[in-house]
Amino acid sequence: MSQSSQSAASPEEAAAVVAASGHAQLLLWPDLRIVTASDGYCAALGLGRSALAGRTLDEVFAPGPDLEILKASLEVARETGRPHRNDRSGRLLVQSPAGSAAGLSLADTVSSPVPSPDGGVRWLLHGAVLPGEGGRTHLAQALEAAEARLRSVLQTVPDAMIIIDERGRIESLSKTAERLFGFSAGEVVGQNISMLMPSPYREQHDVYIERYLSTREPRIIGIGRIVVGQRKDGTTFPMHLTVGELQTGERHHFTGFIRDLTDQQITETRLKELQSEVTHMSRYTALGEMASTLAHEINQPLTAISNYLKGSQRLIDRLEGEPVPQLRDAVGKAAEQALRAGQIIRRLREFVSRGESERRIESLPKLIEDASTLALVGIKDVGVEVRFRLDVRADQVLADRIQIQQVLVNLIRNAIEVMADSEPPRTLEIATAADPDDMVVVSVADTGGGLAPEIARNLFQPFMTTKRKGMGLGLSICRTIVEAHGGKIWVETPAGGGTVFRFTLPGFGRQEGGHGR
User: Nearest CA to 139 among 103, 106, 104, 114?
Assistant: First the structure.
């Protein structure tokens, strides 16, 4: 789920709370569409709950001044963020012939806003008094019922919630807040909210409240920010805090919605570590690929130099004169150094080609998840739709985790860069498939402009690139890594356009499964 859905109770949860109420309760969206109603409310109207849910007030109730009274009360609660008591008489009648002829009395009804974590209004709650609930206590019962319903609904909010007064004293907190900070409600109610903060925030908080009440200048009200909280055991943790204000008469109350960011920061730290590992391996492999290529290319002219020097020695042997021995000696030493340089380069190639790696049994879906997380940073700016099509039979592979992630990151980023310069739709598909030869095929397909045949033939050669600022080593490195794993890599250009890169890796789970049969 998205962050917004995590930070508020779902309509189903709120509906369940209201439906279980023993009082007449109607839950609405801020646009005055009905979410649900309690049994008492439904009985008073003579309608089932399904006849109310999802409908507007105009669709349910008969038009007239009494309906306008209800709307006005709800709108006041929505706009002010405070409960509104209706002291005007009236009676709500339903349009349906199946409804109750008596309707619902509007006298002493209360409309209450249910706040959202961002300080706005999540729902509206309309409470009415049913016949026989007592004359003098009509308003008191309605208010008590509204308060109880609000408290129950707010307890379903997954984020921690704390309500304080204008002096910074804690008036109530949700069960989530108790678990987050390690305090029970009895330990903190009546205490200053600063007890949940480390220094220097603890010493500064009351000053912030006083400044706001005197200047009315909001510095955090309605604005989410990241701060630090302190648990009962003294440990601290990062949290996202959103503060809303509620004014009842002359009194001010502040509601704080808190989301623990510990797991998020752990994930971000792990992502940075993973990115650092892949970057380090990429640079190391690029250096090795470049060294191997240069060694191969330089060794050829060195061999030619050595041959020319040997030929020169044979010509010198036919000469006579005093400088000849010195010339022969100089040419001989030059030939020796050329041979020595060739031996050094040959050893360098052998060292690079060994390419030590740590191959283990790895989860291929997890490898793809981590690599795509790294490669897809900033993808929203390009407008690329990413699809995953993973074969459940291609689950485990024998691979070096960092090296295969490097291959995937390279292929995914190449695809994104290609599609950035192409017309929509831009689709990236990452797929896996089990191969009959106990291999696993991984493919990265894009809907870019494709490749010319002459480029596709030499695409995996060192220093071959289609990018203006590319070095031409990325795909060459991918080939080296895949072949070192016993696989192969190739490119396809579908008739419909785009490019598909495929590579194979040795599977593990299917081999083990074959032994077990």
Answer: 106
Peptide bond into 301 cis (omega under 30): no
Higher-confidence residue of 432 and 276: namely 432
Q: What percent of the chain has pLDDT over 90?
A: 9
Q: How far apart are CA 111 and CA 149, in angstroms?
A: 12
User: In sequence order, what are the residues at sequence separation of 6 or more whose Cβ sits closer than 8 angstroms to the Cβ of residue 158?
Assistant: 6, 7, 8, 9, 176
Distance separating alpha carbons of residues 55 and 60, to the nearest angstrom: 7
Q: Whole-model pTM above 0.90? A: no
d(CA 18, CA 25): 7
For residue 417, which phi and psi values (nearest 5 degrees)? -65, -40
pLDDT in tens, 395-441: 899 988 888 888 898 898 888 888 887 888 888 999 999 988 889 99
The fold for domain 160-260 equals Beta-Lactamase (3.30.450)
Residue 425 corresponds to which tokens in the numbers above?
Answer: 């739709």
Phi, psi dihedral angles at 248 (to 5 degrees): -120, 105
Other CB atoms within 10 Å distance of the CB of residue 22: 11
CA distance 110 to 112: 6
Reading the block at residue 240, the tokens are 């996202």
Task: Provide the token pair at 13.
Answer: 């949860």
Instruction: Report the alpha-carbon angle 493-413-505, nearest 5.
Output: 70
455 vs 151 pLDDT, higher one: 455
Which of these, 42, 3, 2, lies nearest to 20 by C-alpha position?
42
Q: Which among 30, 32, 103, 109 has a CA at the least distance from the CA of 62?
A: 103
Q: Residue 475 has which token pair? A: 């795909």
Domain spans in the chain, listed from the N-terminal domain onward: 3-155, 160-260, 265-354, 360-516
Using alpha carbons, select from 376, 349, 366 the residue that is nearest to residue 462. 349
User: According to the model, what pLDDT value does residue 23 have?
Assistant: 74
Asked if 48 and 71 count as a contact pair (C-beta separation under 8 A), the reply is no
Confidence (pLDDT) at 516: 38
Q: Considering the domain 265-354 in this protein, what is its CATH number?
A: 1.10.287.130
- Is the preceding peptide bond at 425 cis, omega within 30 degrees of 0? yes
Q: Domain 3-155 adopts which CATH fold?
A: Beta-Lactamase (3.30.450)
Determine contact, residues 57/70, Cβ cutoff 8 Å: yes
User: Going by DSSP bridges, is the β-strand pair 109-115/121-128 parallel, antiparallel, or unpaired?
Assistant: antiparallel
The pLDDT value given to residue 513:
41
Token pair recorded at residue 170: 């804690």
Whole-angstrom distance, CA of residue 466 vs CA of residue 451: 9
Count the Cβ atoms, other than its own, within 10 Å of residue 217.
Answer: 8
From 203, 209, 199, 174, select the one nearest 188 (Cα to Cα). 174
The continuous run of DSSP H or E covering 431 comes out as: strand 427-434
Given CATH 3.40.50.300, say whether it is the number of domain 360-516.
no
**How far apart are alpha carbons 447 and 385 in whole angstroms?**
10
Is 160-260 in the same CATH topology as 3-155? yes
